[in-house]
Amino acid sequence: MSAIIDNNAIHAFVEVPNPEGVYSAQYVAYFRALGKRRRILLLSFAPKAAGTFFRQAAMEALRGYMPRLTHAQGGRDGVPHLPAFIVAYLDSGTPEIVGHIHMQAHRANRHFIDMFGLKPVIMLRSIPDMLASYWDMLEVDPVARADGLNCLIPRDFVSMSRDEKADFMIDVVAPWYASYFATWKDFSDEAPETVCVLSYAAFASDPAASLHRAIAHAGFATPRATCEAAVEMVWNKRENLRFNKGVGGRGRDYFSPDRVARLARQLSHYKQLASWMGELLGDVAEPAIRLAS
Fold first, then answer.
1. Which of 88, 97, 141, 224 is 20–30 Å from 256 (CA)?
2. What confidence tens digit (pLDDT) does each residue in 182-202 have?
3. What value does the mean pLDDT take over residues 116-125?
4. Which residues face 43 on adjacent strands?
5. Average pLDDT over residues 6-28
6. What is the 3-state secondary structure (H, E, C) of 70-115?
7. How far is Cα 213 from Cα 209, in angstroms, rounded to an integer?
8. What percent of the chain has pLDDT above 70?
C-alpha cells in the first residue's frame, strides 16, 4: 500500500455522521475531493445475480483488483466502510479498483455514494431464479449458511424437507430482495445518471456489452474488444466463481405457483417496482401477479 495517511484522513476516520449518514460540509468537501482522485467500479449486485463472475471479468478488463470495502459481512448485507474507501482513494499506486458489495440503497448508503461521486451498477434478474441459485449454494456451502443475508440460516437447513426449504426462501430470504430492489428503484429514478441498471437477460445474451456498459458508466475508457477478451477468459474459469447454472426459468422448478404469488405480493408493497415486475418475476410473472391480486 502506498497511501499517505495525512491529518485530514486521520480526522475523517473518526468523524461521525448524523443519524441519517450525513457528514458536515467540511468533510463532505474533503470526501468529494478524494472521489475525484480515481475511479472505482462499484458493483452493488444482489447475491446470485452473476456478481462474482461479473466482478472477475471486470478485474480482468481493467487489470484491477478487488479490495475489501465493507466493514464486515457477518450475516447481513454490506455497508461501505469509510476508512477502506479513504485508503483506496489515497492509494494511487494500486491497480484499478473493483468493488463488489451486496448493499441496499438505503439513505445512509446513498449519502455515502453521493459524497464520493461513486457510480454504482446493479443487475435486474428474476428473484425466483436467484433464490433457486441461493438455495443450491446453501445446500453445499457452510460458509454461505453461516453468512446468511440479514437473517439466520437454520442450523438444520440441509436436512429440512424440500417444502420447508422453499417456504424459508420465500418467507425469510425473499423479503431482503424485495427491499433491495425497491431501494435501488427509488435511487435510479431520482438519480438515473448515477445508477447503472443492467438486465440479466441482456447480460446472458451479450456479457461483453453489459461489462463494457458498466465500466464506461464508472468512467473508464476501456475498449469493447478488451471486455470481450476478459469475458472469454473468465468464462473458462466460471466453475470456480460460484457461477451456478446461469439460465433463466429455474425458479419454477423450485417454487410452486402459490409461493411465487407470495413473492409477488411482497413486491407489490413497493409501488415503484411496477415497471420492474416482469424482470423480477421472470417467466412466471403474469400467473404470479394474477394469483397475488
1. 141
2. 999 999 999 999 999 999 999
3. 98
4. 100, 121
5. 91
6. ECCCCCCCCCECHHHHHHHHHCCCCCCEEEECCCCCCHHHHHHHHH
7. 6
8. 94
- Please provide the size of the chain in residues: 293
| Phi, psi (rounded to 5 degrees) for 146 | -75, -30
**Do the Cβ atoms of 253 and 166 come closer than 8 Å?**
no
Name the one residue in this structure whose C-alpha cell is 449486485.
45
The residues with which 42 forms a beta bridge, in sequence order, are: 99
* DSSP letter string, 132-183: HHHHHHHHH-HHHHHH-SSSPPPTTGGGS-HHHHHHHIIIIIHHHHHHHHHH
Q: What is the DSSP string of 217-237?
A: HTT----HHHHHHHHHHHHTT
pTM above 0.70, yes or no: yes
Which CA distances in Å does 259 have to 46, 127, 154, 250? 20, 12, 20, 14
Residue reference for cell 422448478: 253
What does pLDDT average to over the chain?
92
Q: What single letter denotes the amino acid at residue 196? A: C
Separation between Cα atoms, residue 251 and residue 182, nearest integer Å: 21
List of domains in the chain: 7-292 (3.40.50.300)
Local structure of 206: helix, strand or coil: coil
8-state DSSP, 256: -
**Contact criterion met (CB below 8 Å) for 31 and 115:** yes
Task: Please tell me what DSSP assigns to residue 292.
Answer: H
